[in-house]
Amino acid sequence: MNRINEFNRRVAEKITSFVSTMWCAYIFAALALISLPAAIKTGDVVIIVAWIAQTFLQLVLLSIIMVGQNVASASVEQKINETHEASLGEFELAKEARELANQELAELKIIAAEIHRVLKDVEGKK
């Protein structure tokens, strides 16, 4: 069962990869245009409208919409990657700032201890 699922997945990926190209949209447009003269020859408005809606638009727009989705998806992915990189940079800056703050705190503790020692010495001399 696993092999069948894997095979089906690969076939679906290949078909989707092909259908979501502008070349496929051009092929579908050419294929749809083959039947256009017959639709026009009938002179029936309903048949011509049906040809436009059911044949041309459905075939051609399918691929174009998929291409558009791929473009939009790539744009979103790029923004996510840029945001991730920026976040990592900010995280590194925050880590450096924290390390610096910890060093300064340690130095302040040493200075405070010195001040307390000096104050005790001054009080002891009184």
Protein model, in words:
The protein has one domain. It is about 95% helix and about 0% strand. It has helices at about 1-20, 20-35, 35-40, 45-125. The N and C termini lie far apart (about 90 Å).
Key phrases:
126 residues, mainly alpha
* Rg value: 35 Å
Tell me the structural class: mainly alpha
Low-confidence stretches are none
How many separate domains?
A: 1
Mean pLDDT: 92
- What is the molecular shape? rod-shaped
> What's the total count of β strands?
0
Query: Kindly, what is the distance between the CA atoms of the first and last residues, rounded to a whole number of angstroms?
Result: 92 Å
How much helical structure, as a percent, in the residues? over 70%
Percent strand equals under 5%
Number of helices: 4
Order of helices and strands: HHHH
Task: Summarize the structure in short.
The chain has 126 residues and is mainly α.
Lay out the secondary structure.
Elements: H1 2-19, H2 22-34, H3 36-42, H4 45-125
Helix pairs in contact: 2-4, 3-4
